[in-house]
Amino acid sequence: MAVRAELLRNIRTVEPYVPGEQPQEKVVKLNTNENPYPPAPGVEKALRDLDPADFRLYPDPASGELIKALAEEYKVGEDQVFAGVGSDDVLALCFLTFFNSDKPILFPDITYSFYKVWAQLYRIPYECPKLDENFRLVREDYYKENGGVIFPNPNAPTAIYEELDFVEDILRHNRDSIVIVDEAYIDFAGRSAVELIGKYDNLIVTQTFSKSRSMAGMRIGYAISNPELIKCLNDVKYSFNSYTMSRAALVCGAACVRDREYFKAGVRKIVETREWAKGELTKLGFVFTDSKANFLFARHPQYDANMIFETLKGEGIYVRHWNDGRIGQYLRITVGTREEMDRLFDCLKEKLGLEKSKQENKE
């Protein structure tokens, strides 16, 4: 039965975010920027030590154990940390809490597509300044009056990282607006804006366990700011859902944070593979941005991106493709293990003949 127009008139509708494919069969999965390595060993121990009988009880609504570990890691007060169910949950609550002006919020035209979804869902006006021809943010576009600013650093899907002085310049020009720096990929890049928290009362930095900490399936995200803004965020959370974090997520998250050496080694391995992969892409004739994330953003001047995407998919290798405007000829390729990346490059050579094609062009 069709729903009557009278009912639909007052139902909120949005164009939803489209996540990357999650195939159930065994494939080379390079499409959703997950970490190819397992979480820290302490995570497995934390899971084994959990008492299933405790699952009858609600988890700590304050996420105390996890927040204590994060506060110690970043050398901030526990009242400066907020935890949520992945950075998506944290960011959605940030939109709801801090973006309540009649003025439009600002975020780039090519960026994490969830920003537009949340703005539409919460009926927040927004504008999207265009990235320049090299896919970089134009800082002057964020100098104008606004209801808030948000951007990822490194940006997604372009993988470009802006240095801390660039971030600080935007903060200086927006002293009367909340500025959110979404640092999902910062551990693969450079200095974090967390360094600026004590200097700017309008700054919120969000991060995630889904990338560098190998825990996308556990859904843990967090924000770091000054105590007053964190209190505002908690007030909205407690008005929305007090028990956001599961018992398993809290204990596993804390165990993960405390194993600093394992974390650093894992990041180093991914960065080394990323830099090697850039060289392999160059040999095959691809052009790409200077990635500082755990993925590459690349195109081939002679081959259609959708054709490459479908060819790889047919061979059980999943990458991400948006057939959309300026990025329609780009593929986003997660940095996997060295073995997974070898399989990707072997497929490109064998199925598309890229190595041969490049040699012929030289001749």
Description:
The protein contains 12 helices and 13 strands. With 363 residues, it is an alpha/beta fold. Helix 6 links the parallel strand 5 (149-152) and strand 6 (179-182). Helix 3 packs parallel to helix 8 (247-258) and helix 4 crosses helix 7 (227-240). The longest helix is centred in the C-terminal third of the chain and has 24 residues, at 260-283.
- Overall mean confidence score, pLDDT: 93
Our measurement of the CA-to-CA distance between the termini, rounded to an integer number of angstroms, reads 65 Å
- Helix tally? 12
How does the overall form come out from the CA principal axes?
globular
Residue windows where pLDDT falls under 50 for at least 5 positions: none
Short descriptors:
363 residues, alpha/beta, five-stranded mixed sheet
Layout of secondary structure:
Elements: H1 5-8, E1 28-29, H2 41-49, H3 64-74, E2 81-84, H4 86-98, E3 105-106, H5 114-121, E4 126-127, E5 149-152, H6 164-172, E6 179-182, E7 203-208, E8 221-224, H7 227-240, H8 247-258, H9 260-283, E9 287-288, E10 295-299, H10 305-314, E11 317-318, E12 320-321, E13 331-334, H11 338-352, H12 354-362
Helix pairs in contact: 2-8, 3-8, 4-7
